[in-house]
Design goal:
Length: about 450
């Protein structure tokens, strides 16, 4: 049974073991905590809506501990924590237990632990009361037959016999005054972990094509200050930049991946099929949501891959979402006089292809299953447009966008490796009995 400390409007965790779920933390950080507690936190499920990814919350469900972690579907940051079964967890506040097998969370116990607050709000449909503190709500079930005429006056107006005081059935932790109106707070500085994060990414283009990326980045401020502060800056990465240039601007990558095989070589001209080349390599920046491919011979950047990190994709939870913006001119006749098309991480392919003239026949990309790591999500489809490759999921959402240097080889050989760029990395559904559930 988990033994957790409750800090309203901030976190729920185990300070003795140096881990806590902090409101505002990214989904991947919460998963990393769960993975670090293997054997303690078990039977974890990831719940999401495959057809409504941007409007339905992303949830990590931990039924054996009676707990749910609720994430905003757009920012993918933790916005609320729900304890839906109080019998499966020990809870304390300021070191004092208010819920355990020995201590029942009655209304008197909650008031003794947390102090006075506003009268509880009665829900006649559910026959329950919600007792609200700032950033914390307790739910009590009350039999409607007890004192129906006094129910609307709050719990304090009701009288219960010895041993009949209502018991907490559910608890939610969030930021703000109301769970119904709560939003995920900004990423807490305590969760930065000395990493870089993208606030926005703009694709630098002109009439001849893509030149590079401009990233607005934030990270921890100087260690000289008494308190950690957020520091923001802008960095560009262009085609032709060396790996030293990129490392100077963005620091060491999260991982370096060498392409051991070229699965798209079959689409190259005959001469290229027989060429034995040195291995190109990727700089993977997981918290930036980007990959940068360098040529093995020149060690210069020749491809960028931007990831959207949608649930239901094979690479989900490896990258943070790259908040990119691409401005394209429409191609269709009735759109020539229209405004530019703004493609973002949230655009759907149907809306984009209706205004552009992409390749008609997509390339089907299927990441083969490997040992202890099965691909349960199926294939994606890659559409070419000018110097861009759009990888599209079955539900129409964009999984990734690839930009390649048109001065290099043809389109197919140049973007080869998108499927095996991160093929050796661990997936969310192979650890700690993770179960992916699609609503």
């Amino acid at each position: 049974m988990l033994d957790l400390e409750v800090i309203p409007e901030r976190s729920l965790g185990c300070p003795e073991k140096s881990w806590e779920f902090i409101l505002g933390m990214h989904f991947s950080h919460a998963v990393a905590i769960i993975q670090s507690q293997v054997g303690t936190i078990k039977n974890v499920q990831v719940l999401y809506s495959d057809q409504n990814l941007l409007n339905v919350d992303l949830i990590i469900n931990i039924p054996l501990s009676g707990m749910r972690l609720i994430f905003d579907p757009i920012s993918q940051r933790l916005k609320a924590i729900e304890i839906f079964n109080m019998k499966l967890v020990r809870l304390r506040y300021c070191g004092n237990y208010f819920n355990s097998p020995e201590i029942l969370p009655s209304i008197e116990q909650i008031e003794n632990s947390f102090g006075s607050t506003h009268p509880a709000v009665y829900d006649a449909v559910k026959n329950s009361f919600a007792l609200n503190f700032r950033g914390l709500t307790f739910y009590f079930f009350v039999d409607s037959k007890t004192q129906p005429n006094q129910a609307n006056h709050g719990l304090s107006s009701l009288h219960f016999g010895p041993g009949n005081s209502p018991i907490v059935t559910r608890m939610t932790l969030y930021c703000g005054n109301s769970f119904q109106e709560c939003k995920a707070p900004p990423l807490p500085i305590s969760c930065y972990n000395k990493q870089l994060y993208v606030e926005s990414a703009t694709v630098i283009r002109n009439s001849s094509g893509t030149k590079g990326l401009r990233l607005n980045i934030f990270t921890e401020g100087s260690v000289r200050s008494l308190e950690a502060r957020r520091q923001c800056f802008t960095r560009d990465v262009l085609f032709g930049d060396t790996c030293q240039d990129v490392a100077t601007n963005f620091g060491a990558p999260s991982r370096v991946f060498f392409k051991s095989e070229d699965k798209m070589k079959i689409h190259s001209p005959s001469a290229h099929k027989r060429v034995q080349r040195k291995s190109d390599f990727f700089f993977n920046y997981f918290t930036l949501g980007i990959d940068i491919l360098f040529d093995a011979r020149t060690q210069k950047a020749k491809k960028f891959i931007l990831h959207t990190n949608f649930p239901g994709h094979y690479n989900f939870n490896i990258y943070h979402r790259c908040e990119f913006k691409i401005e394209l001119n429409p191609d269709k006749t009735d759109q020539l006089n229209g405004s530019p098309i703004n493609v973002t991480a949230y655009s759907k392919w149907d809306a984009i292809s209706a205004k552009l003239d992409p390749s008609e026949s997509p390339i089907v990309l299927h990441r083969s299953s490997s040992t202890n790591c099965s691909n349960i999500f199926g294939s994606t489809f890659c559409y070419g447009y000018q110097d861009i490759i759009f990888e599209v999921m079955n539900n129409g959402h964009i999984a990734s966008v690839t930009f390649y240097n048109t001065s290099s080889q043809n389109v197919f050989s140049n973007w080869a490796g998108i499927g095996n760029a991160i093929g050796n990395q661990q997936q969310i559904n192979k650890h700690n009995e993770f179960e992916i559930k699609i609503n």
